[in-house]
Task: structure prediction
Amino acid sequence: MKKMPGLVIAIDGPSGSGKSSTARGVAIRLGLACLDTGSMYRAIALGAMAGGLLDDPVGITGFAQRALLTPGTDPVNLSIALNGVDVTADVHSPEVSANVSKVATIIAVRDVLTAQMRAIAADRRRIVVEGRDITTVVCPDADVRVLLVADQAARLARRDAQVGGLDSQDLRDQVVSRDEADATVSAFLTPAPGVTLIDSTHLSLEQVIDTVIALVPR
Result:
């Protein structure tokens, strides 16, 4: 049987821009795998919290180097396992959301996880990869590179609808404050050369998915 050609779609964007939903939607429609790289950072944060390492960058780095991360890439049922244990539900807790930047801003941890992300993309070959630094660091040679943005009000509203129950300050911490922290080590607010900027503020999810798919080389 003839092997299908590779197709890598890289999606960057700030919190609440819709990149996770877009990535899954594009992957489902095109029959591709999907990698949620944010869940990998969240899993390391979860482990660091359990080990009392949050204020120990060297300890967090060592944990990241030893940890076995197994991200599921089925876009219908994305998952993440840490050392053989499914932690998909745990990594999206408010506690992890509040602390993930402490992990994601450690350059050595980013280096460890970037290598793993690249290996997964190379292995799957036909995949949508979403997160931070995807278009510039993880998959700079992707067939399609997109920076998905939205205005702050839209991003806050989307995150509120997604998680619910947060007060206004906690909500801002999960969106605005986290982006500000991550932006110190990652470029995801302005498009690099060759990266297509899509503003999703006034677009439906289906319209964003259509826009991304239209960029795929025929």
Q: What stands out?
A: Residues 7-211 form a domain with the Rossmann fold fold (CATH 3.40.50.300).
